[in-house]
C-alpha cells in the first residue's frame, strides 16, 4: 500500500495526509554542536545584553555630543541679540 501511495504521489504531485503522518522524522546532531546549543543559552543571553548595553551607551554618547554642539550655538545667538 505504501508503494502505491508513493507512485501516486509521483504521478499527481499530491501528498495525502496519512502518508505524511506515517513518515518518520530523523534528526541527527553532532554531539559537540548539541552540547554547545543546550549549554549556550546563558552565554547567548549575556552576549545579547552586552550588545544592547553597548548600543545604548553609544546612543547616549551621541546625544551628549549633539547637546554640546547645540549649547554654544544658543549662547552665540543670545549674545548677538543683546549686543
Domain count, please report it.
1
Q: How many beta-strand segments?
A: 0
SS content category: mainly alpha
- What count of helical segments does DSSP give? 4
Amount of beta strand: under 5%
Largest sheet: none
Quick structural gist:
With 83 residues, this protein is mainly alpha-helical. It has helices at 2-12, 17-22, 31-39, 41-82. The protein contains 4 helices and no strands.
Core attributes:
4 helices; mainly alpha; 83 residues; 0% strand
Can you offer a commentary on this structure?
The protein is mostly helical. 82% of the residues lie in helices and 0% in strands. The mean pLDDT is 79.
SSE arrangement:
Layout: H1 2-12, H2 17-22, H3 31-39, H4 41-82
Amino acid at each position: 500500500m505504501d508503494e502505491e501511495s508513493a507512485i501516486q504521489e509521483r504521478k499527481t504531485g499530491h501528498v495525502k495526509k496519512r502518508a505524511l503522518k506515517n513518515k518518520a522524522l530523523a534528526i541527527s546532531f553532532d554531539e559537540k554542536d548539541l552540547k554547545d546549543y543546550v549549554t549556550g543559552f546563558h552565554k547567548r543571553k549575556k552576549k545579547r545584553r552586552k550588545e544592547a548595553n553597548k548600543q545604548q551607551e553609544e546612543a547616549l554618547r551621541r546625544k551628549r555630543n549633539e547637546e554640546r554642539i547645540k549649547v554654544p550655538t544658543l549662547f552665540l545667538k543670545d549674545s548677538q541679540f543683546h549686543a
